[in-house]
Design brief:
The protein has eight helices and six strands, in the order H-H-H-E-H-H-E-E-E-H-E-H-E-H. By secondary structure, it is α+β, with helices and mostly antiparallel strands. The longest helix is centred in the first third of the chain and has 30 residues. The radius of gyration is 17 Å and the shape is globular.
C-alpha cells in the first residue's frame, strides 16, 4: 500500500472505532439510565422487541442533554473532529442526537457506519428521523438497513424481502424471517440493487 492508502485506511478505521464507542454509549444509556429505560426501552418493548433483539441490532437512546455524548467521548480521548465528521457532534460542539431512540446502521461486515435517531417528543417541530451524514464509510445509496444480519438468509432463501423501515426489519427478524432489508424510506437506488444482487437476483 502507498503511504496515502495507509493513511486513508487508518482514518477509516478511526471512524469505525468512534462509531462503535457511540453505539455502546447509546446502548448503555438505554439500559442503564432512568431516562433511557422509561423513554427508550419502553418504546422498543412497546414495539414488541425482546432484549436480545435490541442488543443484536445495536439499538440505543440519546439523552436529552446538550453535550452528554461529546463530553464522554472527548474525555475518553476521541477527537472532536471525528465526532463532527461522523455527525455525532454539531458544528457548535454539542450532541447531534438528543432525546431520540437510536438505530445503528451496519456495513456488510457488521461494523457500525452510521446512526438514525427517532424523536420521542410528541408534536415536535423537529423531523421524526434524523440520520448521520455521508462519510468515507457511509454512502446512503449503497447501503441497506439490516443487510449484515440478512445476507446469509438471503443466500439460503435465494430471495430478498424489501421493507420500508428499521422497525419492520427488526420485527420480521425477531419473528424468524431474516432475509429482509430496508431502504430506510428512500426509493431503491442502483447501488442498493447491486448490493442485493451479490446475494440473490430475486427481490420481493
Amino acid at each position: 500500500l502507498t503511504p496515502e492508502a495507509v493513511a486513508q485506511q487508518q482514518a477509516e478505521d478511526s471512524l469505525y472505532i468512534v462509531n462503535e464507542f457511540a453505539r455502546q454509549f447509546y446502548q448503555d444509556q438505554l439500559f442503564e439510565t432512568d431516562m433511557g429505560k422509561s423513554v427508550g426501552l419502553s418504546y422498543f418493548k412497546g414495539r414488541g422487541f425482546r432484549e436480545d433483539t435490541i442488543r443484536k441490532f445495536g439499538l440505543g437512546f440519546a439523552p436529552n442533554e446538550q453535550d452528554a455524548f461529546v463530553k464522554k467521548a472527548t474525555q475518553t480521548g476521541y477527537k472532536l473532529d471525528f465526532l463532527k465528521k461522523l455527525g455525532l457532534a454539531s458544528q457548535y460542539d454539542k450532541d447531534f442526537f438528543r432525546n431520540r431512540v437510536m438505530f445503528t446502521i451496519h456495513n456488510l461486515s457488521g461494523k457500525p457506519i452510521a446512526f438514525a435517531g427517532r424523536i420521542m417528543e410528541k408534536n415536535a417541530k423537529a423531523p421524526k428521523y434524523i440520520n448521520s451524514p455521508e462519510t468515507e464509510i457511509y454512502v446512503k445509496n449503497k447501503n441497506l438497513y439490516g443487510a449484515f444480519f440478512a445476507k446469509t438468509a438471503i443466500r439460503k432463501a435465494d430471495e430478498c424481502i424489501l421493507v420500508e423501515g428499521y422497525t419492520d426489519v427488526i420485527s420480521l427478524h425477531q419473528a424468524g424471517i431474516e432475509n429482509v432489508v430496508a431502504s430506510s424510506g428512500t426509493s431503491l437506488t442502483d447501488g442498493q440493487i447491486a448490493l442485493i444482487k451479490r446475494f440473490t437476483p430475486n427481490i420481493k
